[in-house]
Records
---
Amino acid sequence: MEGILDSYMRFLATLTPAYFFELFWFYFVFEFIRYFFLEFIVLNLYKIKSWTQRDKKEDARRRLFLENPLVSILIPGKNEGKHLYKLANSLSEQTYKNIEIIVVDDGSDDETPIIGRSLEKAGLIDTFIRNELRGGKASAANCALRFAKGKYIIHLDADCSYDNDAMEKILIPFFMDNRVGGVGGNVSVRNYNESLVTTLQGIEYFNTITTGRTVTSYLGIYRIISGAFGAFRADVLDQLKGWDIGPGLDGDITVKIRKKGYKIAFAEDANCLTSVPNTFKKLIKQRLRWDKSLVRFRMRKHRDILIPNQSFKFSNFISAFENITYNVLLNFKWYVYLGIMLTYYRPLFLNIFITNILLYTTTNYVKFVVYSLYRPKAHVSMSYFLVYLPCMVLYYGMYLRAVRTVAYLQEFFFKKSYQDPWNPRKTSIHGEYLGI
Amino acid sequence: MKHFETHNYKSNFVLEQGQYSYVYIRNFEIPPLEEIADHDAVVIEVKNLDFVRLIVNAVRSNLDPDIYLTPIFLLKKDVLDDVPYIEELVDGSIKSLDDLGFVNKEIDKINIRKNSLNITSSVSFEAQVITKLIALMYVRELKVLNPIPDKYSNLYYSFPFMAINFEEKEEHLALKILNLAEEEGMLRSEYFDRVYLCSSCSGSHMSYREVCPKCSSSNTTPDDIIHHFPCGYVGPMKDFSNEIDDKLDCPKCNKRLRHIGVDYDKPSVIHHCNNCSHNFQDYNVNAKCMSCHTDRSVETLKAHDIKTYRLTKKGELAAIKGFTSTSKDIEDVVGTVKYDTFKTMLKYEIERLKQTLGDSNLCAIHIGNSSQVYSKLGSELQRGVFKDLVSVIRSNIRSSDVIAFWSSSTIVVSMNDIPHKIALRITGEMVELLSELIKSSFDDLEVNFETKTVALDYRKPHEMQLRELLAEFD
């Protein structure tokens, strides 16, 4: 141990700025600039914009309540009955009242039909549709959409819970800019203190959703409205005729809305809490599904975004390009970096590895503390996460990177997303055939 | 053996044969009903069943026992279908007037039993209806009262001997009175069926419809929901209908639907309300009452059991001895408590005496000739007499003492914490006052009051002491 420390101190002493950059270019070029420097600047600009637009936002809120449009809340799902009473009750507490709640039971094999039917009778939900044959999440959402009467559509997951002003907050962006076609809500982790993996996801959601989506939204390249909490203009969804088959349908519909020429906004103050997988094994399953959809939708189904043609739009191009670059290309580029380090700097590899860990951890701490100042009110004290931040390098940099790599390769070479049991085979088989 | 006896027309309505005289009703002519009491039977010529029903109802619903108990026979010259409702109310049928001899035996039997009855006027409508029912059952030796499916009845089931007393809209009251008669021990019942009646008017002519759970409109249209696999579109079948060639085309991707289970399926059915545009799967079932037009959920309907009833021995005896009032009638008299409550209070008084060794008394006042008395009084007057009797008794006893009816002719009174001698004196004074009251109220009415007053014995159970007190009045 002492030897390693001595060697490391000698290594640090030899580091000149040029040599430092030569060894840690990957961190500087991709991580530091994109995920710290750029985000920091944008967060400041965002704050300024929020302050200058505070009157406009208040006016939008006033117009929302003045117009008081009917808002249809769609809750599709399978075996979600156990969450429905709590969810319906929390929705009745919302500050925005003109809502209709439509629940679609996608072929549940538990008590969901009985629970849903009794909630409908009790008036806690407006319409409960029971589909005996499971059709997948998209079909359930489309079924709910077909019978929705609202001017705006909000898509929720049954196992999530919402701040009592969340519906109001997610609708305001529509009244601030009439080119907005969809708005994503801010999703945080409810069970952050259940296990190490949920705590790390709590930090990850803070970084990638609360901060990440604020930044991408400001830049006009926000690309995924979470299925857990997303709002849409009904006329836009009507043009698109709803969701296409998944998995990854929430990212897909966001792209489709963008392609129609509408803007996508992020409502960072519309808070939703969700339960995340509580074991590493379950998380792998979820992330494999998510990561495969990136390849399937961004690189395959919507690759036309990247090609200059008549419907080419720069922001859409950047949105997809940034997504593909930072998630797919850099993921593989990291292996190149690893290869170079192992090949050309093998004697120094341990020291490079330690320095990388220290660099990333330091950045994580600085980001976490500084960005907390920009974050809207949270349901949990940020200090709870501080002790877990060093784990993020291994969690995000190693564990999730490995999962991403597997997912990308599976989808690139085997189109594995079409075999995912998350979607019924009867629909996936058509998706595979049609290449969608 | 056939009876070929000649019959003579004494008047337009009266027919005689031997010693028997019949009221003969034909050609849609209706005789004065009071005449029926002077004849042995009624014969109705059956040409129009509605007319027959009208006549039979009129006879049986009359309040005079000499009229409503009169045997009725139908003269059926042509072969006609039996109408169960009418058949239940009549005593037989003949094919020609020459056959009258065949029914005379039945007339004798009915009239003998009819003459054995001691019908008193009743305190209440309920008691009156029960009296008529048990009298009709008794004279006809009708042991079982069966409900008859009857599309004309407001309950769909008819008890003809009960239905005659009610307007169509009030027929449900028949069920209540039958239950009351059962509670009184006159009838014994067995479950037969159940009907659901309107919660507003107790009618049973309902139209059941599937209605929208939001606006209760029955103007709804069901439609299959279709899920198109390739594009994930889901909607009612009308979304897919192609008006040109009647095939199904997807409104999202324009593909033709070809093979259920392969490229599409039908996961459920949805109903669309054409009135309020609500979409739903779980419709409500409403019942619209055809009588009062209320339209409510079937859950609001009142369930009533339809039963068959048997006349009990007690019922037969009540028919013979007369049935004046139901326990409900005498419970309703102000200033009295229910007999069961009286017994409970007596039990506590005995317990109290065990501690205090004081003097308490139990008194019974009985109207010996109650049948005669009640026969002379109308039902309203009887109620008045009950009230007056109780009021006189109440004014002579302490407010802590209690009064209860044991029967319509016997009143029991507790007189607590006074010596037996004084109790006897008070009882005597009460009887004098009661007699004076009756004299002053009714000129030609003589009431025989009998009394018995006993000192309460704390060593004997309360029920035994009551039994001993009331034994001679049973």
Note: Residues 84 and 158 of chain A are 6 Å apart (CA to CA).
---
Amino acid sequence: MAAPRLTRRAFLRLMLIAGIGGGLAFAERRTQPVGVRQFLAWLLRGWRRRVEPPATVALGASLSYDEALLRDAMMELWDEAGMPDVAGKRVLVKPNLIEWIEGRPLVTAPEVVGAVIDTLRSRGAAEIVVGEGPGFRRDAGPVVAQSGLADVLARRGVSFIDLNYDDPQPVPPRDGWFPGQSKLWLPRHVVEADLVISVAKLKTHHWAGVTLSLKNLFGVVPGIRYGWPKNMLHVNGITPSILGLKQALPPVVSVIDGIVGMEGDGPLFGTPVPHGVLVVGKDPLAADVVGARLMGFDPEEIEHLHWGIWTGVGQGIRIEVRGTPIEILRRRYQRPPG
Amino acid sequence: MTAWGILGLARWDPYAPELAQGLRWLIGIPVIRLEGAELTAEVRRTLGIDPALRGWPWRPGEASWAEPTALALLAIHAAAAVEAHRDRVEEAIRYLIDRRCQGGGWNFGNPFMLGAYLPPRPHPTAWVLLALKALAPDVIRPEDGEALRAEMHRDGGAMALALGQIALAALGVEDPEARERLQALQGPDGSWGQNPYITALAALAFRGGWPWLRRG
């Protein structure tokens, strides 16, 4: 029997299939470790953000740490920013308590945490806890006491949870930011919260450029599971870990304490910047983009903000700023070394 | 956690097969070790450390850190397995010496970063001093103990005060003030901060220190 003859049409069809297959294999390899499907999902979501409604970020100016004034300002900004309804909800308030060094503004001021708690109470939150898992401290208790937060919480009858030791629970890593990992371990109070409020500090950071409300999420990773410092995040990469944590958590909203910010050698050894600003936003990426601009940085220069915008983790392109215009409040923070 | 298991078993039953299995796992755990002249030089420039030295990581496949290294060494010492793993133990001791902070003591394992010397912390300093006391007491410097005392009082938390006293007792140093401060932090329910780990450390501190140092 004669061998079947390969027609010109069949040959072209074979070449087309081989070309598509080769192209997909090339794209798959080029987009490792996330893969072409995840890459396209990020790309499309990033594009979609360009036509979606803008995120609202509210800016307060000329503020001090006077508790009564701060409470009023926080409530006003909360409404202006269109923050979510918290009535009947379990809320975890996550300040930045990385370390305590006398005279350096490296933690979220306790008065700001107090104002957030008062706002949540006034809006009917069912359960409020404050939690943090410092990456440099084995025991958060002394930082809570030394920073004055213990007193603020005691006066309001709110508990503090050291997230480094808070019963880790497995959660799926969403959105492809932790390739090769089937689960993340996060503290019980974080997993069970209806809403996480990242109450961050407006600071420079020697690795990440800035540490605002997204980078502040590193503190939810339990040291008891991942060690001190949270090395797993550095192994995975700082940018994918920051964005991956945001995606793995319950809904996150932001408050950034820039009443006294930090410039230069942050996050620990920088110098204070009396700035008087408070940033409140429902979308953490939008709040951080505004925060970076307030510091005089181009958000696109900050790697995790650039990738957050590009992949559409939040709305980083169309932002409506309410309150004092950003141009009036912008400073030029000294960059971190390195 | 495995190091703690070995420490516990070594006190109960030094010949338990589980102890040998745990030890095998601990010795064989993969650790990141940076090699290559260019990369090593870059790490030396930014972090001031020798990245080729291996200690122990918090989790398999990650970088070495001071605290898990010290705890692993204490477990190997408690299991009387130092001679069987002499090279690995000596490398880990060199790792700890390399990570010492400028004025004595240890932090998590980064004594220097981007042009700045970083300060020691009480918890890793205490663990490292216990490990060195057990395995290489000659390399301990007076400023290491002084750093521990200063940092544990600066921290003032029950965990730092308890661990600090355990390590200082191993060095033969008494600190009555730390003892009083730790006593004052005990809650009415008998616990320290309702935290089993800190309460266990406080109990060890009041009991006279690290019991495994008598073995080896």
Note: Chain B is about 55% helix and 5% strand.
